[in-house]
Amino acid sequence: QSVLTQPPSASGTPGQRVTISCSGSSSNIGTNYVYWYQQLPGTAPKLLIYSNNQRPSGVPDRFSGSKSGPSASLAISGLRSEDEADYFCSGWDDSLSGVVFGGGTKLTVL
Amino acid sequence: QVQLVQSGAEVKKPGASVKVSCKASGYTFISYGISWVRQAPGQGLEWMGWVGGYNGNTDYAQNLQDRVTMTTDTSTSTAYMELRSLRSDDTAVYYCARSRGMSYGLDVWGQGTTVTVSS
Q1: CB distance A44–B44 less than 8 Å?
Q2: Beta strands B46-52; B18-25: pairing state
Q3: Of the residues A101, B36, B53, B78, which has the maximum number of CB atoms within 10 A of its CB?
């Protein structure tokens, strides 16, 4: 059972906009930064969003992050076939004194 | 370019120990720490802990703190993760990843090391 809650799956057609939610609590998302990672099949995760809504260099602006209270969202606009991957949210948890992850959302591009 | 290169796959028997290495290049090793994250087959990501590149300070996940040790060798820019008393549910891909501090994001990842625990 993951500390952060994500839907197990999401889907969309090319060009569509999809959002993936991440629900936490006051001890993690509510007070600390949220990070999002993309894991393509058979590869290591890659940092997609940091500090709630910042994109590392090289990440397309089709990807955006937001946070409100104890919840966060990742939005992907102009969906492309290469976006098909697992997406994980993450953050620091003050109560556990450690990093926590969501269970991951498998995005399918139909 | 910034890179983390991990040691090769391991097969261990239950009760044994495993030590995975993570060699950093392309950046100042002591300016960052290294987190270790594992992923069991078909499962999500689990944070195991963090070790500081400068002073070797550590912070371990509560459920692993009795069995895990994370260290660094600044002379070779290498981080190590040792897991003891292995069980079958320790079978996973183990990743090292760079971060500014234990609560920061993981911006560069190693390629992963598969550890299989089987009798």
Answers
A1: no
A2: unpaired
A3: B36
Give the closest residue to A105 by CA, choosing from A30, A21, A49.
A21
Please, are residues A18 and A107 in contact by the beta-carbon 8 Å criterion?
Answer: yes
| CA distances in angstroms from A26 to A4, A91, A100, B56, listed in the order given | 11, 12, 13, 30
Contact between B107 and B36 under an 8 Å Cβ cutoff? The reply is no
Which of chain A's residues have a Cβ under 8 Å away from the Cβ of B49? Answer: 98
Q: For B59-102, what is each residue's pLDDT tens digit? A: 999 999 999 999 999 999 999 999 999 999 999 999 999 998 87
Q: In sequence order, which residues have a C-beta less than 8 Å from that of residue A73 and are 6 or more positions away?
A: A19, A20, A21, A22, A65, A66, A67
> Which chain A residues touch B47 with a CB distance below 8 Å?
90, 98-101
A26-79: pLDDT as tens digits: 999 999 999 999 999 999 999 999 999 999 999 999 999 999 999 999 999 999
Q: How many CB pairs under 8 A join A and B?
A: 57
Which residue from B62, B103, B111 is facing A44, i.e. has the nearest CB? B111
Name residue, tokens 């397309």.
Answer: A60
Whether residue B107 contacts residue B99, with contact meaning beta carbons closer than 8 Å, is answered with: yes
Q: Which of A99, A100, A106 to mutate to test the interface with B (most CBs of B within 10 A)?
A: A99
Cross-strand bridge partners of residue B21: B80
Amino acid at the residue B95: Y
